Amino acid sequence: MLAILAAVLFGLALLMELAGFGLGPVVTTGTLTTAGLLCVALHLAGVATDRSRFTRRRRRR
Predict the structure, then answer these.
(1) Would you call 36 exposed, middle or buried from its count of C-beta atoms within 10 A (0-12, 13-18, 19+)?
(2) CB neighbours of 28 closer than 8 A, spacing ≥ 6?
(3) Could you tell me if 41 and 2 are in contact, meaning their C-beta atoms sit under 8 angstroms apart?
(4) Dihedral over Cα of 33, 34, 40, 43: its sign
(5) Which pLDDT score, from 0 to 100, does residue 6 have?
(6) How far apart are CA 61 and CA 49, in angstroms?
(7) Cβ count near 33 (within 10 Å)
(8) Distance (Å, whole) CA 32 – CA 8
(9) Which UniProt keywords apply (predicted)?
């Protein structure tokens, strides 16, 4: 999920850079790029992953 969010942020940053506009002094292409990199880093670190489907369950006999 974080990787998809990062792709959206990078896409918005690219469109804003190509169009040459910003959304005020706070939301700039640099801010969106930094937020995208943060999402990629969190995704690679394993944050917000569903670990329950990767664990093995022991069968009781």
Answers:
(1) buried
(2) 16, 22
(3) no
(4) negative
(5) 94
(6) 31
(7) 17
(8) 9
(9) Membrane, Transmembrane, Transmembrane helix
Both tokens of residue 46? 């394993």
- Token look-up 């009781």 returns 60
Taking the C-alpha atoms of residue 27 and residue 58, their distance in angstroms, rounded to an integer, is 50
Judged on CB neighbours under 10 Å (0-12, 13-18, 19+), 32 is: buried
User: What is the block-wise mean pLDDT of the chain (61 residues), using blocks of 10 residues?
Assistant: 92 93 89 94 87 65 69
In DSSP notation, 7-61 reads HHHHHHHHHHHHHT--SSSSS-HHHHHHHHHHHHHHHHHTTT--GGGTSPPPPP-
